[in-house]
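Lab meeting notes turned into a lecture example. A postdoc, R.K., suggested we walk through two folding results consecutively so the class can see how the record format repeats. The first protein's sequence and structure tokens come next.
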Amino acid sequence: MTQRTTPAAQVLETDLEEIRTHARGSLDRLAGMRVLMTGGAGFLGYEMLHVLATIGEGDGRAPVQLTVYDNMLRGRKAWLEQLGARPHVQVVNHDITKPLPADAPAFDYIVHAASIASPIFYRQYPIETIDANVNGVRHLLDHMRARQEKNPVRGMLFFSSSEIYGDPDPSSIPTKEDYRGLVSCTGPRACYDESKRLGETLCVNFARQYGCHVTIARPFNNYGPGLSIHDRRLLPDVARDIFEGRDIVQLSDGTATRTFCYIADAVSGYLKVLTHGEAGEPYNIGTERPEISVRDFVNKAAAIGAEQHGWRGNVVQQSSDDRHYLTDNPNRRCPDIGKARTRLGYEPYVGLDEGLKRALAWYSGNRE
């Protein structure tokens, strides 16, 4: 009997095929390499690890020798255990705020994605957030420096954030990489924003002083498969309301605007930054259009939920019980991706309507 493929599985396979097409040059370069990804159990690790773990499966390439570090703070993910069953994938319970294990192999490439990225959770764990973004990146950079003479690391990618720009002046939107930021160093989001900024400073100075080939990606509002329905960010909250059959609760007036980048497009960009980015350079990875209000984004998702998943609720506005829920929340967020486009050949392809359809189809099979 042929096993029926679920809509969620179909979405993942479609995404992976698109990444394989749009980031082919990067995957060619990574084939046969020893790659470490920290924080691999998180959102950004989901599709990136699926792509890396399946290099060499019927494509004529040598497989990636893949090592994943994660402290498993939010549990061991079933999908990560499945990937870890492959002979060339090793999943290690390791907290990157501690030095690398003494028996760590000589990695060719490193991806540092270990961080708490949801505002709700990083405000609950501010010191842990700072430690991952500062001490964690320092441990990895020290590892790179120690291997400069023997078995040098070919490249390291540091996942920074669009939050390093804070709430940009309107004259600086779309925002370029040379914008210095308008950021609070003491506000409720500062543990995340400022630690990402310091993480970038460490990367740039290790590149300049020691010649470490470390590059920086600044994600802009990624969404899609891998982002837990319990993450407490915008789309997971909407999806949870849809699939639990209740009203969608919007905890703001919805006037803030964002551009939303589907994760398959973003992962293609991150792979390009890892393998072809210039040392010490930051790259915005996101999409420039459409810049849409939170209210319109929620209404789009609600319409898809009604049409494709039988949702019959209403969108209602309430105030959060958390008095700092919106403190220092940027009014607008929109990247200038010209640098990544011209230097790396990065281009997002998945439109917002299509991305939301895929995301909700994936959530339909991933409600836990």
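The second example is placed directly after the first for contrast:
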Amino acid sequence: MTDINAYDTAPEAEFGDYIALLKPRVMSLVVFTAFVGLWVAPVDVHPFIAFCSVLFIALGGGASGALNMWYDADIDAVMNRTHNRPIPSGRVPAQEALALGLILSAMSVMMLGLAANWFAAGFLAFTIFFYAVIYTMWLKRWTPQNIVIGGAAGAFPPMIGWACATGGISIESVLMFALIFFWTPPHFWALALFMKEDYHKAGVPMLTVTHGRAATRRHIFAYSLVLAPFAIWLGLTSVGGPFYLAVAIVLNLLFIAGCWRILRRDEDIARADHYAVEKSVFKLSLYYLFLHFLALLVQNLLGTW
């Protein structure tokens, strides 16, 4: 890993730069899915404990983001969409990002253990380790399956939220994990289709780089077919119900249709229209996950099966 430190002419860091290290967009998804996992669990949790639990899970997610940015600064520096991040731009020294990530990691795990339970805290510690070490330091630069295996880190938060309430794991939390886990590859591969050159320049073995766009399109469609049964199965468990099931069926039909359009694309046509279909499916994938978890929340308020 290239050591990237502050440059002589680098602007002074602002508070917002340290917030950016925590990847707030990713953290917002972590917070929401963890909250839903905690909320729909079959155990009442005191509102203050629930608030603290979600807060400390969010801090753990932010810690993972800071550690990721620290280690990936050399990659971020050569990619168009990441070169202006706080470390490669020189606004934040790499050592400060590392220190922030380690401090928040220890703080979030310790405080979650005290606020909720030590099973959930241990789960959070494992998630941080998985994202920062297994994914960032190993899988991302080694295998085109990086986003498949590494996607588990982003799928753990609802399981952690569930564990905060129940102290354990159940089929419902595993299916919430599976929903995010199998959603992650088509989501990121759709992005990679119109951002291939970034990954190529950075030397990241994304599937588009190692196997080409045609293979990536086939993988996207295949994963959309694998994803749908897990999304619908979740609606048949104790946290599901007719509202969630209706939303899941509609969303998965739309997502499979979009991935089918990607599969059928001719590369020359895709390039000519600036990958409009790929971009639209990527945008749909963002709404897909949010709406599934929102539907779980609404279903819980309406009453489950």
